[in-house]
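Something for you to look into today, if you have time. Could you write out one complete protein record for me, on any chain you like? The space below this message is yours for that.
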Amino acid sequence: MTTKRTWLAGAVALAALGFSSGANAQGCTINLGGILTLTGTQGDIGKAIGDVAQMAIDHVNEAGGIRGCRVNFILRDDQGQPQVGVDAAKQLVEVNRVQALIGTIGSGVSLPILTSVTAPARVTQVSCCSTSPTFTQMAIEGRTQGYWFRTIPTSLLQAVASANQTIENGWRRTAVLYVNTDFGVNMARDYERAIRAFGGTITAMVPFNENQTSYRAEVQRALAQPHDSMMLIGFPQDGSTVAREWVSLGGSQNMVLNNSLRSDQFLNNVGARFLGNAWGMDNAQVSAPSVDQFNRDFQARFNRPARGPGLHTVYDAVVVTALAYAAAGGQTADGTQIRDNLRRVISPNGEVHGTGAAGIRAAMEAIAAGRTIRYVGATGPFQFDANGDVTGPALIWRIQNGQFQEVRTIDMDAMNALFARVNAAPR
């Protein structure tokens, strides 16, 4: 009898905190929206990111859900097309009544979703992958109304780290081929500025449009001036075509690649023998137990290492949103309340909780008990600044012996020093 009473008392206490042994014990469900590119030029990347988003949702539900309510992740495909993304967002907001939305990948799709749907509807939008600095400027001007957040640093980090590696490799005359989107235009501009600050020269700046069968004309324009290297900014499908035509027309195999090209699709389509001197940059994860836990969970679920753009950042986007939802009260929370709690669940002075179902459960219990928490995620510790941005270290990688090899990490002190050099250089 004593044992039974003790168990019942514990169950009542957990119920009072809004938790149960599994999500949906209270019979409630919370819809969380998601928009990612699942088909088109970024489809392979988007599917992998979507799989990790679902893993994060499963961890939240295994941890008891949001205040005991099961999370229903409604994922839509934007096909890499702005209007498709806007239509999907309208359905999620107006029909499914989501108060928070995860996504999307391309800045050119995230931007109209933000301006046309989420910000006007006061729905919080958290992106794993959109890196354009345009969002920062919009936030400064008050046009995001504070509803925009992202768990990935801006493309400026990629541009400066890539330029630094270009110069360190001894390459001084670089042709730039870049996808003609908001992301590509901004990154190419920042890369050009950084290259000049570090003492190099840009021989050509050539944009290319997505979904073309050939980029021969663009490649020939880039090859018109003597060069010793090429910076390629794009996504695996079109990037593969550009790289193949670049090599076939006599372009240097000294290549610098943006983070989206750190994919098996790109490597296999171009061919490892043509990429033996290809280098690239990605966002690095610091050494932390939460990162190790995510990597173990990913390996166990997908039977491969957690390597590729957006995997760590989408996990954090989902989990930090779920925690903010809980801190805002759970099922009754609206987008504004979720927005206002996103920074609170990563408070620098809060008790630390990490990734995985066990880490999320402990974080949710702390929130329900009224304690301040600091979620430390798959990317390590992070903070949203006043514009919803985060910062982080940079990872330098290269292709060697047909494999992606991690070379080194540029920590934040070193990155800040590089930013200072760029900012000090004449424009």
Summary: The longest strand covers residues 29-36. The two ends are 79 Å apart (CA to CA).
